[in-house]
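Q: Can I borrow your eye for a moment on a structure tokenisation matter? Would you mind producing a protein record, from residues through to fold? Write it directly below this note and I will take it from there.
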Amino acid sequence: MNQLPIKPTPEQALAWYHDVVAAEGRLPNRILEKSALYQRLLDGKKPLIASPPLVYSYPWYSIVENDQPQDIDQPFTCAEGLYVEADGVDRVLISQSLWEVVSRDVEESLTVTWPGWRELGFVWRAWRELQPAAAAKAYLISHHDPALGRITTLAQLDAEARFQAVQWRGEYAIAREWRLGLTDEASAVDALYAFHGHRDGAQRERFLKRAIRQKLQHLGEIFDARLRAFMPDAISDEELEERVVQERTMLLGENWRVLDGQLFFDGWRLQRIAPAGLTASHYRELPPLAEVVNG
């Protein structure tokens, strides 16, 4: 339905692009490669009857044409009061764009629409949903076992937290030797670089070592602070266990939950609920190519 009769040449797509932009009363994008509309025409797809909603300032065609749930990359929470009242219209921020609120069902579900599409009967539902880690768009990377790819269980989360804590103690031990004068700064940087198993080209190695030198300085400041507080200069096993708990908390953040030993992502989804499907009337009619190209 959204396919053009032919796949246009770049010249033909550009002609149609200028025609559509003029009809919508907009200025053309000076950098065509960044124009979603031009790329759409070039791919042989019809333009929508109205400009699509925006996702992070970029045209969101799929949220109009696709009736499947789509993850909202930056989840919002109704309870946090992210509603914006303007011109008497109730609005909510979704992926950095303001949507009009049609109704608020419950605290964690609402229906919304987009200017220009409400008049066409388009409504979307946004809701909060716990998604299994194995299927969620967001994921936690498994460093303790790269073969896993993503972390999906509590046992894997705990293993990752312990791995990160042990890594932290190992990094600190290198900084401790440097601060105790047992090695120089350059050797400590090399030791930290090797500790993480980096095997990079010369240019990337220089870039990474600049970052590693900053980390070394930070770890050295931790060493100095421990001495000022009359604490042992080495990390104890008890402190390591405390660090494991901290790492676990940091991994979970605000959006991950553990239920019955499984990991879930607590996020938001958005789905078109009306109309049931698109018709030809939801796409803009284009003038014949000869008419556009020849002016």
In short: Helices lie at 10-23, 36-42, 62-65, 154-179, 185-195, 202-228, 237-252, 289-294. The CA atoms of residues 133 and 152 lie 5 Å apart. Residues 10-131+268-294 form one domain. The first helix runs from residue 10 to 23.
